[in-house]
Records
---
Amino acid sequence: MSGPQTLILGAGHAGVQTAAALRAKGHTARLVLIDQQAALPYERPPLSKDVLVKDVPSPLLRKEAFYAERGIELLRGVATESIDRAASVVRMADGRSIGYERLVLATGSLPRALPVPGAGLEGVVTLRTERDALRIRDGLRAGARLVVIGAGYVGLEVAAAAVSRGAEVTVLEREPRVLARVASPEVSSRVRSLHESHGVRFLMECGVTAIEGDGRVRRVLTTQGRAIDADLVVAGIGVVAADELARAAGLACDNGILVDEDCRTSDPSVHAIGDVARFHHPLLGAQVRLECIANAMAQADRVAEALLGRERTPYDIPWFWSVQYDARLQSVGFWQDGSDTVVRGAPAQGRFSVLHLRGPRLAAIETMGMGGDFIAARKLIRSGASLRRDSLADASIPLSSLALTEDTPCPN
């Protein structure tokens, strides 16, 4: 047999890709994939998009036959109770114990709990599972009053979906602008305008003090002294790493499970990947915990290579995306507030890019309706090429043509 007996906890994108990559790269030993949900593993991004807008389920990550054909033991609907590292055993809530030689933790993240009175009322929902999405969708009837707490990607995607189903939407955000943690002011401004054009109401720099109801939510009380009537409340105030099992097992954790460049934890026989893992990103030069599918898939492949002793694939530039109404937002790379920026295109028409520069090189880009810029930027950031600064703002010039070569004179 090739490779150690491997146990994977969590069947999201990271866990399923780890199992698939191990088999594809030659792992022939026993391979067990465990997930707390009873459903076949499914895609998560559609939960705040198509699942809410259309009466469709979220697509499966792999068809059921995939697991059987590759000898992947898929255990569904069973919770993991503890990890006994001394015995190399995982103990399940149903009383079973499963041994491992290598353990991969792909437990993901959990929605941050809303810390106010009334958060447990019926009709107050967070979005993590397909069941959560269906509960939200059932409440999005025409004329329903939805309050979204948090103007991040998930909250705004839910707001867009709710509007398409005829709901009246109010978004509460404690920051002065939407997407404050993840987008530049230029993108924030355009996204807010887009939502307002569809009838969404925003209350900025506004927190929540309590949620009231008679068993079911009826109103939301805010720090501005308002009482907002609500038939449904969706809380999207961020996520936390699902690292409880790791902490209880004594693994080193700090805002996620700490791992090295091969996603190995403080126990050499245990790896962690995806949303739950915090690692040193060589392209950023800092410790990060990335909540994106691109990173989950890359780390899954990297763990498979490490477990099988293969040459590791270099880390790539992380990228993100969101769909709201008919607008597609995409970003790639790392940037910080106050970075040197160039805007190209037409923000008022919703077709523009915000370029974040580090010296003459592109560090990151945010795009709306500029797919060509997004594709070109991924290559430019990866290559580290210097750019023609004098032409960056001209959207009629393809971004891909603005890289300087050794034969290209730098403009004065």
Note: The domain at 6-110+240-307 is CATH 3.50.50.60 (FAD/NAD(P)-binding domain).
---
Amino acid sequence: MAAMKTDETPHAGSNTVVSFPLAGRSDLIRRSAIELDSKHGEEALLYWRAKCRALGAELLARGCSETDMRRQVMDFQAEVQAELMALHEPDRAARS
């Protein structure tokens, strides 16, 4: 089964849905990183858990297997972490 996405796009010339994995959704990753970066402590933890659970539930509702859903959410988490690091990269250069 193909990886699922939240925005389903029909494949040209067919009735098949072409899916786009969460980790490839750069707008979602960036928005999530910015939102997470604005929170601290318990608020950040609650936001992050809710975001990942909602994405997982959405993938399952769209027919993703449990295994694929977990993999996609883990890949998404890694991409958000990388985006958080990139958001603060100018800070690192300024301190050097």
Note: Residues 66-87 form the longest helix (22 residues).
